[in-house]
């Protein structure tokens, strides 16, 4: 079989600005393609992206050469496979179930959302991205994880610093100095919260882990909490901002969503249309073949769910935001053993609580200048602001 | 082939044929049966493939697998004694005629 064709034309800057036309071309012409600018082999068809994530023996998450380990100062579950991965993940999974949210916390999350909405002025244009999407996501996550006492600003800063560190493929020591400081702050706070939760347990992830009959090692409890901080704020924030944009620029769909209370469908379509996490890398463990192309052992493939989500084989008019699709088999939460641990939480908090509350409070809000919204990101993607006129 | 019947929460029945060796989640996806999401592809990590095995088939499908109980706790709908993650039910000739009931919610 031939080796993957090489695409020298693609630069990282183009992907960061707008990867979608590039992915559309790749799906049509070179669905398996080497991209030297990123040093990865891109997989852009839904069948390939799913196959790769489902098969952890052939396509491992355990790539020791990523900057994730120094950034988190830990070997985290995201970079493990097999039994150790399952054990560490299941140690916190039960804090992220729909039942815990419904029975214990739904009212609290409604109250939190209301409190932030109460602060908004009427008749003015407000950046909902920074006023609502980011801090409400942070506040809710603080509760789910058991990190009471951490401020919104701390949570958001830690999250961003972890992400910047884990994405530090240039190995810039200054960035690791920043993550080192953030890690020290988090370590102290997590330890203090653990002590409180040992004396007074609740349903939070940290409480569940420290009070388990057969707990995982402390280092991994801390690592799990940090992964959830890194993965649990920006994605719901970006998802919410994207859905807002989709609905406010498609008033006919918004009206229908309201009428049918189809907020869950709006959530699914928002994260399909612009996946908050656009791609996941995997290390190839043995020589193999994908789509008739030889993929050598040691190669790193990028399973690009952003592209899979618009694959013509699965989606009609996939480039457009259309809430009322017959089926929506997007891969925005990944698939396989590393399928997002927070998927149920994100669906319940953003889809069932935050979006409907916001539109109930400000039924006539408008997006005055959709053209002015800047979209950004290759690994992670979303709008950089969402200035909306509230009524 | 193995015949599988899916009974949706509203009572709609869908009958499909599947090759032995597949599983009840994958068979639903392959045949466009609504009511099973199967988002993690059968890795037992999402609980969006929850089903209730018909009483007549509980012996034939056997006990839950290792770890399945824990993941079932993450299902959106009520968990009952006959609850299973459908990705963990492998189809064999012995399951020809299997009937499973689907919950109202998977996510
Ligand atoms: C709309 C919001 C979200 C999206 C789109 C999203 C997306 C994803 C994706 C694509 C992965 C898979 C990574 C891979 O394949 O390597 C993942 C993993 C993960 N996510 Fe999310 N996520 C969201 C919200 C959350 C929230 C709220 C939490 C925390 C409560 C969370 C916690 C995690 C964890 C812990 C993992 C690692 C799972 C593992 O490796 O086993 N996510 N997420
Ligand atoms: C939860 C904490 C996480 C942090 C702090 C983090 C940070 C990053 C960042 C920013 C990159 C991008 C570097 C590049 O594009 O070259 C990276 C590598 C990668 N990870 Fe993660 N990530 C986390 C979780 C995830 C998850 C859940 C996914 C899901 C796929 C993910 C996706 C990426 C992407 C897109 C890259 C791209 C680079 C590569 O090919 O390795 N990250 N990590
Ligand atoms: S498909 Fe995810 S648990 Fe069965």
TrEMBL record, chain A:
InterPro entries: Cyt_P450, Cyt_P450_B, Cyt_P450_CS, Cyt_P450_sf
Cross-referenced PROSITE patterns: CYTOCHROME_P450 (PS00086)
Alphabetical keyword list: Heme, Iron, Metal-binding, Monooxygenase, Oxidoreductase
SUPFAM superfamilies: Cytochrome P450
Name of one Pfam family that matches: p450
Gene3D superfamilies: Cytochrome P450
Family indicated by similarity: Belongs to the cytochrome P450 family.
Protein name, as recorded: Cytochrome P450
UniProtKB/TrEMBL annotation, chain B:
InterPro entries, per database record: 2Fe-2S_ferredoxin-like_sf, 2Fe-2S_ferredoxin-type, Adrenodoxin-like, Adrenodoxin_Fe-S_BS, Beta-grasp_dom_sf
Keyword Transferase among UniProt keywords: no
PROSITE patterns: 2FE2S_FER_2 (PS51085), ADX (PS00814)
Segments forming domain 2Fe-2S ferredoxin-type: 2-106
Keywords: 2Fe-2S, Iron, Iron-sulfur, Metal-binding
Cofactor requirement: [2Fe-2S] cluster
Protein name: 2Fe-2S iron-sulfur cluster binding domain-containing protein
